[in-house]
Amino acid sequence: MYFFSMFIGKANGADQMPELIVLAVIIAVLCAIFFISRRQEKARAEKLTMIFQELGYPFQAAVDPDRLECLAAFPLMNIGRGKKIENVISVDGPSADIAMFDYRYVTGHGRSRRVRRQTVMSVESTSLVHPVFNLRPEGFWSKVGSVFGGQDIDFVEHPGFSEKYVLKGESEEEVRIYMDTILLDFFAVQDNICCEAREGTILYYYRYERVDPDTEELQKFMEEGMGVFEELLARQSRPGGRSA
């Protein structure tokens, strides 16, 4: 602040004083926000480290660009800029490779700029056979988009699902066959979840939400993600389940 005071004091003309004071205040506020944010992120990483060490999961707080590149085909990973994956746990299991991480990206510019942060779980398994699809909660802009021709695969026989979710896929026919009544019932009772499926891998997350660094909340999120994986795996034993 001393620098700004000196700068203001040397300004030519008293008419510049209000503008310079406003500029100094804006810069000071932005610096404060930046340092508070960094402190909060550091505290989150420290708490996650402690929780996952207690649970026995390997944890990596550092940014993971390789994982970001591996998941580049997913729609979530193609939104915005400044994309980062960090705070990663990764477990290679007998039936699937599981990872959970914080994902950060930026949208918009100026006053519309938003930093989005959310917790994401990825499950990869050679046992998964499914069509490419994206599932996310229905919102106002989704409804507007569908009016103007945006894809949203609806099921007349299951209005509860169709009113709750936007469903897209590379092949609408394959997705319609794959999403049988049991699977539609399963998703219809979930709240605010997103699921993206690509070549034996799924991403599971809450839209625009991060899971609190709390043991119970994190375990609940992982169990929900595994529940989706197991439901998709079970789908393959029913007619049309292995047509992807």
Describe this structure in words.
The chain is α+β, with helices and mostly antiparallel strands and 244 residues long. It has two domains: 56 residues, no CATH class; 179 residues, no CATH class. The chain is 42% helix and 24% strand. The chain is built from eight helices and eight strands. An eight-stranded antiparallel β-sheet has the order 1-2-3-4-8-7-5-6. A hairpin with a 6-residue loop joins strand 3 and strand 4. The N terminus is likely disordered.
Shape: globular
Biggest β-sheet: strands ordered side by side in the sheet: 1-2-3-4-8-7-5-6
Order of SSEs: HHEHEEEEHHEHHEEH
Sheet with most strands = 8 strands, antiparallel
Q: What's the alpha carbon Rg, rounded to whole Å?
A: 23 Å
Task: Identify low-pLDDT runs.
Answer: 1-8, 144-149
Strand content: 15-25%
Number of helices: 8
Say how many strands there are.
8
Q: Gap between N and C termini, in Å?
A: 62 Å
Overall pLDDT level:
85
Tell me the count of domains: 2
Structural class: alpha+beta
Helix percentage: 40-55%
